[in-house]
UniProtKB/TrEMBL annotation:
InterPro entries: Kynureninase, PyrdxlP-dep_Trfase, PyrdxlP-dep_Trfase_major, PyrdxlP-dep_Trfase_small. This is Kynureninase. The gene is kynU. Its EC number is 3.7.1.3. Belongs to the kynureninase family. Catalyzes the cleavage of L-kynurenine (L-Kyn) and L-3-hydroxykynurenine (L-3OHKyn) into anthranilic acid (AA) and 3-hydroxyanthranilic acid (3-OHAA), respectively.
């Protein structure tokens, strides 16, 4: 299983990078794109670049690159803000669109920021956040639920929700669905159109390779666009931003979900990240994802035995593109791996997380990583005080 497009990335030759689920690798095109933007656009044309170089349209034009990755129409997608801010916008708009309903439904142990955003919104609007176990979500959608807010791929276990079934159950109950695609877009097949998804958000810096802190994306189904009213009514979401009117008039379509001035440098970097998918079918990406994760599981279990335990679904079709193994000293083991230039990450309390980005990871990466993990466990190299000292970012 060779990588689909490793030549499109700049990765140190001696590093096995298995953390694309947290921060995608650097596309080779990004540095020159940013240099050119600063040198030939910002420096030379200054503020005229908003018109001359089309800066003002980038949130929509670059979003069009995302359309085949998540199977949506370009007009349903927008690049804007962070995932957390985008989620707040969509949940608030959904609650308003289903006024009279008082519940936002989610799952326990959802990604924390999703829970925090939803709880804050509920406190503001007098709604209730109801969290249930993942397998109880579908049966918990009743006539008081305004919106179902879920992460498509669980950030810990990599378990995947059945998007089509939950969308259907929500629609039957009169509720809306809002998906967080941060751990799925660019790694597995996402079918927003085919599953009749209502709303979605996702970050640009994981599998989409947009760089640290890259802007997020928003999806609103075309059939809902004119009935959704964003809560953050910024000037860029106005029908005529440069009329400078006192009163707000929402822009037509997805542009109404813009708020402030877009970050042009960050969006340009994300454009390079999205371009790494050019000419590559998401069905091929998903197949490689399943193959790489299964090869890693098989190799770790054969090499490490009972020293670690699988904390992700065993069925490749039921998991995303990362795998978690549990170990009582998982943080220290991961630090020892990083010292050997095998880069994954850790999630409390005991999970070592390994992400597989099919564009640049190959079978050699996963087999070598499993062997080094076995060597570290056999030698107890992780039991060095320096590997137990917790850093701010894990």
């Amino acid at each position: 299983m060779e990588a689909l497009a490793r030549e499109r990335f700049s990765i140190p030759n001696d590093v096995i990078y298995l953390d694309g689920n947290s921060l995608g690798a650097l596309p080779r095109a990004t540095p020159e794109r940013l240099r050119a933007l600063m040198r030939e656009e910002w420096r030379s044309d200054l503020i005229a670049s908003w018109n001359k170089h089309g800066w003002i349209d980038l949130p929509m034009s670059i979003a069009a690159r995302l359309a085949p990755i998540v199977n949506a129409k370009p007009a349903e997608l927008l690049i804007a803000d962070s995932t957390s801010v985008s989620l707040f916008k969509l949940l608030a708009a959904a609650a308003r669109a289903r006024s009279g309903r008082k519940t936002i439904l989610t799952q326990r142990r959802n990604f924390p920021t999703d829970l925090y955003v939803a709880q804050g919104l509920c406190d503001m609007l007098g709604l209730t956040l109801r969290a249930v176990d993942a397998d109880a979500v579908r049966d918990s959608i009743d006539d008081d639920v305004a919106v179902v807010s879920l992460t498509h791929v669980d950030y810990r276990s990599a378990a995947v929700h059945e998007m089509a079934a939950i969308n259907r159950a929500s629609r039957d109950a009169g509720a809306l669905t809002c998906w967080d695609l941060s751990h799925s877009a660019g790694a597995i097949e996402v079918d927003l159109a085919g599953t009749e998804c209502d709303l979605a958000v996702g970050c640009g810096y994981k599998y989409l390779n947009g760089g640290p802190g890259a802007p997020a994306f928003i999806f609103v189904a075309e059939r809902l666009l004119e009935t959704m009213h964003p809560p953050l009514q910024g000037w860029m979401g106005h029908a005529q931003p440069f009329a400078f009117e006192d009163g707000y008039q929402p822009a037509p379509g997805i542009a109404r979900f813009l708020t402030g001035t877009p970050s042009i440098l960050a969006i340009a970097a994300l454009d390079c990240g999205l371009a790494t998918f050019d000419g590559i079918a998401m069905a091929d990406v998903a197949a490689r994802s399943r193959g790489l994760s299964q090869a890693f599981i098989d190799a770790v279990e054969a090499r490490c035995g009972d020293a670690v335990s699988l904390a992700s679904p065993g069925d490749p079709a039921a998991r995303g593109s990362h795998v978690c193994f549990a170990h009582p000293h998982g943080y220290a083991v991961m630090q020892a791996l990083i010292a050997r230039k095998v880069i994954g990450d850790f999630r409390a309390p005991d999970l070592m997380r390994f992400g597989f980005a099919p564009l640049y990871n190959d079978e050699g990466d996963v087999l070598r990583a499993a062997e080094i993990l076995g060597e570290i466990l056999d030698s107890r190299a992780w039991d060095d005080p320096r590997f137990h000292a917790r850093a701010k970012v894990t």
